[in-house]
Amino acid sequence: MSNSRFVIDGKDIPFRPGQTIMDAAMAAGVYIPHLCHNPDYASTGNCRLCLVKLNGRYVSACTQPAIADSQVDNQIDEINQQRKTLLQMLFVEGNHQCPGCEKSGRCQLQAVAYYVGMLSPYFTHFYPRRELDASHPEMVLDFNRCILCGLCVRASHSADKKNIFAISGRGMDSRLVINSTSGKLGDSNFSAHDAAASVCPVGVFLPKHKGYEVPIGQRLYDREPIAQVGDVAHPNHQRDKK
Amino acid sequence: MSHKIRVATTSLAGCFGCHMSLLDIDERLLELITLVEFERSPINDIKQLEPVDVGIIEGGVANTDNVEVLREFRRQSKILVAIGACAINGGIPAMRNHFELKECLEESYLDGIGVVNPMIPNDPEIPLLLNKVHPIHEVVKVDYVLPGCPPSGDTIWTFLTELLEGRPIHFPYSEIHYD
Ligand code: SF4
Ligand code: SF4
Q1: Can you tell me the ipTM of this complex?
Q2: What confidence tens digit (pLDDT) does each residue in B125-134 have?
Q3: Contacts of residue B82 in chain A, CB cutoff 8 Å?
Q4: CB spacing of A216 vs B179 below 8 angstroms
Q5: 3-state DSSP: chain A helix, strand, coil percent, rounded to 5?
Q6: Environment class of residue A134 by beta-carbon count within 10 Å: exposed (0-12), middle (13-18) or buried (19+)?
Q7: Which of A115, A132, B46, B68 to pair with A71, CA 20 to 30 A apart?
Q8: How far does the centroid of ligand 1 lie from the alpha carbon of residue A148, in Å?
Q9: Which CATH architecture fits B5-93+132-175?
Q10: Which chain B residues touch A226 with a CB distance below 8 Å?
């Protein structure tokens, strides 16, 4: 353990060379909001929610290596306002009807939005038309909620070694696609036990034959905010010890 | 208090769940009616809208009548509140937005399972459906939003009491949810 340190919001954080701001903050129990980051996979910095200020400049905490003696602003009003705007854009770009979503109450998009105090999506909704894929015997994919975080792509590639998922298209046309001759999950070699099946921060991967199993009030994020509870893929992995 | 706060409420394309939740403040209703006077509302069945301090809108905008009622509420209310998922993002009724209106009507009234006497209703008394369901902020300016499907009685109570006391409104974690 080296004795390099930096400061987040006035708190001293130790780090080892090569650790990102996110790695060091998580290890120290300081919560930085994020969606596309999962410590098991390489960071891509695409959701931009872990936006922080490093010595006054914006960086994404999950891709920026920690720098000794630097000052990082995380929980400041200016940044949380920007995070809220990013979340509002994610909400209107897809179809997020939380009252009818099986993931509700244990959804990271929702939990981070609660955390930054988002009360409404504010922008004009796109209401895109996206088909479900129910071709697999064990899993339904509801693309209406995909935020293109790329976690299932990374998990299928590096943990499962199957490369079942990819993000295709550009800009507004970007979408999650499946690597099978028909483009359907049922024709791929996907299994519900794959790592890719359990990394989605939102409600795209829905196991069949169950749903709404945990009563309202007892779900992952019903009682405590995500800073205390941790990520969907790693509950209690990090606890904000502030 | 010499002058009670005047409140009106309505349900547009909603299910009245938010109004049920308002009743869920239980015995606090007795306290509430010492502070507010209910004008037009499904609770008292008053149909005529007079100028009010607070207008509370449940439901999104799905037909021409919804547009008219919503605009009237905006004109007559000093503060307009969007209550519940449908008012805020269209909610469950907005799930029809992925389809053409024609497809929805055909599925419901012509081709759907168990349809007898297939016919698309066309009575002049029935308000025309809009092509899409809209959140209310796409039609009028909204001053406050109360998320939830429905927001709990406690959330509504926190909102109303803090609003009436003129305080910045702060909700405990458990009182804000989107479902
Ligand atoms: S994925 Fe999350 S935010 Fe989207 S509808 Fe489901 S619960 Fe709501
Ligand atoms: S399906 Fe889920 S994990 Fe995959 S890219 Fe979309 S949001 Fe991310």
Answers
A1: 0.92
A2: 999 999 999 9
A3: 120
A4: yes
A5: 25, 15, 55
A6: middle
A7: A115
A8: 14
A9: 3-Layer(aba) Sandwich (3.40)
A10: none
